């Protein structure tokens, strides 16, 4: 049992858990508000871009497609390093949390735009025509007829993507944002124990498991309808 | 504007640091091969467990998949890289990255395989069994090929995510593309190597991202 005791003491040390609980709660709070800001920015911008794309202006659409492709093809950490370490050279100094929110918000917007757009293109053409025939303008048809249906189609893939990108707030630890992982790493080097890392992992499971379960519920509901 | 070009698009700096980035690119390629290969195999295995008849196999598989989906890959990586040595297991950065992302990706690939396999009607398996194939053969020769074809866009898009994910290896000082570029940045006091790394990622991933969009649009219609 000696080995097991040592294992528990290394990874699940109660005294260390208790000592770092307040710091960890502060980290959880930072992770939650960062994620909320990223989700708000990403979904709003993604929805706006998808709507803009439905007007069919060639130049505008090309810009939107390039934006969405860049956001989906570039690793977020590359963008974070460029913004955090590169921009100060031009005299633009952004704080760590701001860089994280901007980069992850843009990345989420890129994915969200593609998902909303896929939803919009799946709405049957007859729906548009019917909307226009009742005397609604293009924008009115978009908002009142097409968008509600598109958004419903978009929800399951969107929740998956929101989950994946909210988790990336852990990248903030690389640029000194004191979210869960940063708190855990700092505590680990102070205590010389792996327990804070376990604590951090548990904190992430507590914060994000509800979202994972939500994706499962949506998946079931979606499967029922089809 | 001149400052911008000097600091971000400096061709002279890019040429000077290219050898460093080339080594990094090679490491990234090796990482991708290992992580994608392990993930594809591990994911298939995990998806079989998640669809097993016995709930003693099925439920633990779902718990593992969901916990792995809830924990950010970087957290898993740091846990393995800095945590395991406390348990007396010294692990190289490459092995840590391989294990962490193998676990993370297996969960994602498993969900995709499961969706694909469950999209195949039971009649396919029954017909295959009726012709005398064993259930393993029916899975391998009849169900799986159709299942994989159905979820090819998702497999592809997850693979793009895996390639992007390998950039996190820079955090544990594994000299892959992003690490090399960041090192070059701090040596030259110039961000152009980072921009070059971004361009290299784009060169490989943009075509794949286009392909994913193409596929998905076709499915939507």
Structure summary:
The complex is a heterodimer of chains A (226) and B (221). Chain A has helices at residues 2-11, 14-53, 58-73, 76-86, 96-122, 125-133, 138-167, 180-191, 195-225. Chain A is an all-alpha fold and 226 residues long.
Structural descriptors:
heterodimer; A: mainly alpha; MetI-like fold; 9 helices; elongated; B: about 220 residues; mainly alpha; 10 helices; ArtM/GltK/GlnP/TcyL/YhdX-like (chain A); amino-acid transport (chain A)
Name the beta content range of chain B: under 5%
- Assign the CATH topology of chain B: MetI-like fold
The H/E string of chain A reads: HHHHHHHHH
- Secondary structure: helix percent of chain B: over 70%
Main location (chain B): membrane
GO biological process, one term (chain B): amino acid transport
Protein name (chain B): Amino acid ABC transporter membrane protein 2 (PAAT family)
Membrane topology (chain B): Multi-pass membrane protein
Please tell me about this protein's structure.
Chain A: Its main location: membrane. Chain A: It comes from Roseicyclus mahoneyensis. Chain A: One of its GO terms (molecular function) is transmembrane transporter activity. Chain A: It is found in: Cell inner membrane; Cell membrane. Chain A: Belongs to the binding-protein-dependent transport system permease family. HisMQ subfamily. The complex is a heterodimer of chains A (226) and B (221). Chain A is mostly helical. Chain A contains 9 helices and no strands. Chain A has one domain (18-225): MetI-like fold, CATH 1.10.3720. The mean pLDDT of chain A is 91. Chain A starts with a helix and ends with a helix. Helix content of chain A is 82%, strand content 0%. In chain B, helix 2 packs antiparallel against helix 3. Chain B has helices spanning 2-8, 11-50, 55-70, 73-83, 93-118, 122-130, 135-150, 152-165, 177-188, 192-220. Helices cover 81% and strands 0% of the residues of chain B. Chain B has a single domain (2-220), classed as MetI-like (MetI-like fold). The longest helix of chain B has 40 residues, at 11-50. Chain B is built from 10 helices and no strands. With 221 residues, chain B is an all-alpha fold. Chain B is elongated, with a radius of gyration of 21 Å. The mean pLDDT of chain B is 92. At the A-B interface, helix 1, helix 3, helix 4, helix 5 and helix 7 of A face helix 1, helix 3, helix 4, helix 8 and helix 9 of B.
């Amino acid at each position: 049992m000696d080995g097991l005791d040592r294992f528990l003491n290394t990874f699940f040390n109660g005294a260390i858990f208790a000592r770092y609980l307040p710091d960890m709660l502060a980290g959880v709070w930072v992770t939650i508000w960062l994620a909320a800001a990223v989700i708000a920015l990403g979904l709003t911008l993604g929805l706006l871009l998808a709507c803009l794309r439905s007007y069919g202006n060639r130049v505008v659409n090309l810009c939107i497609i390039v934006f969405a492709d860049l956001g989906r093809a570039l690793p977020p950490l590359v963008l974070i390093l460029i913004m955090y370490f590169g921009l100060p050279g031009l005299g633009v100094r952004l704080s760590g949390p701001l860089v994280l929110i901007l980069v992850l918000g843009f990345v989420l917007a890129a994915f969200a735009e593609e998902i909303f757009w896929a939803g919009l293109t799946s709405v049957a053409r007859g729906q548009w025509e019917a909307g226009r025939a009742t005397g609604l303008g293009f924008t009115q048809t978009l908002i009142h007829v097409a968008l509600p249906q598109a958004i419903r189609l978009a929800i399951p893939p969107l929740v998956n993507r929101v989950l994946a990108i909210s988790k990336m707030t852990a990248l903030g630890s690389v640029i000194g944002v004191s979210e869960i992982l940063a708190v855990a790493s700092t505590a680990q080097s102070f205590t010389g124990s792996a327990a804070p890392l376990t604590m951090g992992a548990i904190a992430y499971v507590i914060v994000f498991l509800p979202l994972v379960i939500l994706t499962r519920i949506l998946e079931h509901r979606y499967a029922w309808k089809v | 504007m001149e400052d911008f070009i000097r600091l971000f698009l400096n061709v002279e700096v890019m040429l000077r640091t290219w050898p460093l980035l080339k080594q990094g690119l090679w490491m990234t390629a090796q990482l991708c091969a290992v992580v994608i290969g392990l993930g594809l195999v591990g994911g298939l295995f995990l998806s079989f467990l998640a669809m097993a008849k016995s709930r003693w196999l099925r439920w633990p598989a779902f718990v593992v998949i969901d916990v792995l989906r809830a924990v950010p890959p970087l957290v898993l990586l740091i846990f393995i890289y800095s945590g395991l040595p406390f348990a007396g297991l010294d692990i190289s950065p490459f092995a840590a990255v391989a294990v962490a992302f193998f676990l993370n990706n297996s969960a994602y690939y498993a969900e995709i395989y499961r969706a694909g396999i469950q999209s195949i009607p039971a009649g396919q398996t029954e017909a295959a069994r009726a012709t005398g194939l064993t259930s393993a053969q029916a899975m391998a020769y009849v169900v799986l090929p159709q299942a994989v074809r159905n979820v090819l866009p998702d497999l592809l898009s997850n693979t793009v995510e895996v390639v992007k994910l390998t950039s996190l290896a820079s955090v544990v000082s594994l000299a892959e593309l992003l690490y090399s570029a960041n090192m070059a940045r701090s040596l030259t006091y110039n961000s152009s190597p980072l921009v070059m790394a971004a361009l290299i990622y784009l060169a490989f991933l943009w075509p794949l991202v286009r392909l994913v969009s193409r596929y998905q649009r076709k499915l939507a219609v």
